[in-house]
Amino acid sequence: MTPLKMLAFDLGASNGRAILGEYDGERLTVELKARFLNGPLNELGHWYWNIPRLWADIKASLARVSGEYGTPESIGIDSWGVDFGLLDSSGRLLGNPFHYRDARTDGMREVAFSKLPRELLYKYTGNSFERYNTLFQVMAALQNEGSGEGEASRLLLISDLFAFFLTGATATEFTAATTTQLLRVGTLEWCSPVLEALKIPPSLFTPVTLPGSIRGLVSDRIATETGMKPIPVVAVAQHDTASAVAAIPSLGSDYCFISSGTWSLMGIEVDVPILSNQAMELGYTNEGCANGRYRLLKNIMGLWILQECRRVWEAEGQSFSYGELDELASREVPFASFIDPGRDLFFEPGDMCDRIRVSCKDSGQPVPESRGAIVRCILESLALKYRWALENLETVSGKTIRTIHIVGGGTRNRLLNQFTANSTNRPVLAGPEEAAAIGNLIMQAIGLGRLKNIEDGKRLVRNSIQVEEFVPENVDEWDSAYERFCRICKHAERRKD
Length: 497
Fold this sequence. Notes:
Layout: E1 4-11, E2 15-23, E3 28-37, E4 40-43, E5 46-49, H1 51-69, E6 74-79, E7 84-87, H2 108-115, H3 118-125, H4 134-143, E8 154-157, H5 158-167, E9 172-173, H6 174-177, H7 192-197, E10 208-209, E11 213-217, H8 220-226, E12 232-235, H9 240-246, E13 255-260, E14 264-270, H10 277-281, E15 285-288, E16 294-300, H11 304-315, H12 322-330, H13 352-362, H14 371-397, E17 403-407, H15 414-424, E18 428-430, H16 435-447, H17 454-464, E19 468-470, H18 475-494
Parallel strand pairs: 1-6, 6-12, 9-10, 13-17, 17-18
Antiparallel strand pairs: 1-2, 2-3, 4-5, 7-8, 11-12, 13-14, 14-16, 15-16, 18-19
Helix pairs in contact: 9-16, 12-14, 14-15, 14-18
């Protein structure tokens, strides 16, 4: 067969990547063609995304790929969820989209619950009540005079926004829509009872389409600007975690996944959403899969805390690779201090090193001073939080989990992978690193008719990608550490950040 070349844009919270994939009928090869920075932009006390810069980087990547390798057969875009841009009636973007870490949503959950009981909201949408959900962001925008909301004609999630820039077509992809707390769970319909109760205009929202559909062709203007031909833009599983899960090569169903990066998304795939009160109280959310199933998962703060510490150290003139930070951490005393990564204290950008010290001091623990001690505190705390999430995942789902499969950029952190195996007493399989981009490419191949389904895609990944196994070690010591970690987390719950 003629090799199929496809271009995946994987837009994460810290960087974006353009990855060229080639499928020859038996194997998939991937090659990074461009990497560009992404991150929050602070203006006048608010956090935004720099969409013009990201769009310029995407077009530059298209031009580079076109000039060096010719035009691929298709393009797919995946990104983080919940955030959105607003368009006026002429298709003009009404300002930079807010970043999900912006504080403008403070208090919005309480306003929503006063108009719609939280139990009913969970039954309608299946989403946990995260402060950054699209629902609460839209509520904040509607309350904010001068936000431009009155001029808005359409709301597009980030991946759909860039697909619109490429094609001129507006729609909302299913997996991205399931992150909003505005889609009626188990359907492709926006949730009318939620919109009505909270007075959100239904006209803002576009039709929801399934992964693998063709969104449109690259417009003539963009084709001319980048040297591309007017190729199809495939609506892949556009939420990056959904794409990453589509690329997990594990056999069977007795595993859970951790999509590891700025966030750690830990969960399982289920045939139908789990909407029990227990799942709601423990903060588990139901989000869409590439194959129409659902991911029951827990959002965990992830490597964001370490990324922010690294940024602080770089500002002080000390630059460390993640491998070097792992080496520093490995020399430190185990289990000296813990933090609860889920505290609001660690949510907004800032000096995480200082916040970790404050958290440890407040809970009566030794205060980590060295960089290695801080890194070890973060990684051990994350691994122990994974155990907490795994145990509750088994309780909520009634499923026994025997293996953990870690995918995404966090797979490079071998120390965290080993800590996760130790903490959970489960073998950990790590890889692929570029899982979101690979899942993106799989859905492009399905959309173009070159693969039949996700199962074919997973077999393709198994034929193409090596994974690394981490076997549990020092389990008794980690069991004792977990008991103390749980006490620290309960202490944190009693405090107001």
